[in-house]
């Protein structure tokens, strides 16, 4: 915390507003300090009986089995380091048809979309007894209601469920090259889910991994009761568009870090070391690796995490002073 108040140090910077469309200007919200967070009666915190973060993929996450499996391990490992001390489990993947959700083709972008509220209802039913929360992830775009164009994600804090899509993190999403466009017209709310078979999946690049780790931890942060940060540059800053969400850091400011620490009870330095291990560990899986004969060791694309790695090393050095 001391670091944030020393102008000569540069670990924590202010929030810099770049345009009028930035979140902090376009969505005025009450700030939340530690006291307000801590005394929030509706806030949910993990406890020994409910200490697992469950991740559930909906539909395919990657074009090959190896990519799908490795990507899931990377996300799981990242969440385990970020929410250090909690257990993170991936439930068996489910196809879109299992959720019985409505779907449609977006009339502007021509890509497939699934109904976020229906997915939340499905996840709520599936939530295991020892879950702190259950979070769905998908590469298919989401819509919250017919009149809306799209939504990046949706969560219910009281139910401890959330669903987030990484479809719009594809580098080609808004270009004419985007391959997720559906050529032939499709009926909305049809019960024929075959349209999702072999549907386009974005390539798991370093930037996609970086964006998905960032979104997942920001959104799970909300489930812990952290509101949008208005103190310093921080993962928990609100974001209105992709450019703004790319700008916000992967790290929590000292105030949000203190909130998360009070909910989980980790050692700050051990958490930073775990995050560093995740970036540096090329064997991908930290816990529970089951080597198999057909296991292909895909290198984790961590290039986009380089600056953050340097930052963590500086933090560890300060904490060890
Ligand atoms: Zn948010
Ligand atoms: Zn913050």
UniProtKB/TrEMBL annotation:
Coiled coil: none annotated. One of its GO terms (molecular function) is metal ion binding. The keyword Hydrolase applies. GO terms for biological process: proteolysis. Belongs to the peptidase M54 family. Probable zinc metalloprotease. This is Archaemetzincin-2. The gene is Amz2.
């Amino acid at each position: 915390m001391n670091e944030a108040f020393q102008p000569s140090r540069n670990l924590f910077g202010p929030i810099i507003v770049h345009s009028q469309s930035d979140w902090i200007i376009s969505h005025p919200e009450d700030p939340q300090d530690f006291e307000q967070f801590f005394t929030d009666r509706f806030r949910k915190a993990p406890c020994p009986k409910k200490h697992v973060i469950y991740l559930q993929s909906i539909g395919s996450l990657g074009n090959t089995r190896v990519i799908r499996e490795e990507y899931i391990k990377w996300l799981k490992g990242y969440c385990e380091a970020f929410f250090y001390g909690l257990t993170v489990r991936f439930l068996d993947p489910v196809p879109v048809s299992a959720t019985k959700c409505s779907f449609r083709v977006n009339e502007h972008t021509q890509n497939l979309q699934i109904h976020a509220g229906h997915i939340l209802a499905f996840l709520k039913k599936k939530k295991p007894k020892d879950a702190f929360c259950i979070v769905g992830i998908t590469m298919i775009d989401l819509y919250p209601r017919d009149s809306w164009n799209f939504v990046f994600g949706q969560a219910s804090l009281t139910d401890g469920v959330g669903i987030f899509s990484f479809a719009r993190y594809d580098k080609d999403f808004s270009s004419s090259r985007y391959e997720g466009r559906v050529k032939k017209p499709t009926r909305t709310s049809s019960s024929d889910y075959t349209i999702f078979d072999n549907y386009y999946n974005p390539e798991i690049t370093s930037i996609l991994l970086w964006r998905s780790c960032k979104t997942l931890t920001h959104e799970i942060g909300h489930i812990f009761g952290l509101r949008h940060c208005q103190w310093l540059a921080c993962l928990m800053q609100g974001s209105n568009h992709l450019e703004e969400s790319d700008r916000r850091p992967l790290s929590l400011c000292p105030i949000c870090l203190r909130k998360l620490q009070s909910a989980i009870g980790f050692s700050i330095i051990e958490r930073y070391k775990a995050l560093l291990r995740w970036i540096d560990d090329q064997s991908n899986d930290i816990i529970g690796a089951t080597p198999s004969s057909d296991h292909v060791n895909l290198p984790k694309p961590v290039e986009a995490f380089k600056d953050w790695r340097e930052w963590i090393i500086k933090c560890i050095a300060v904490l060890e002073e």
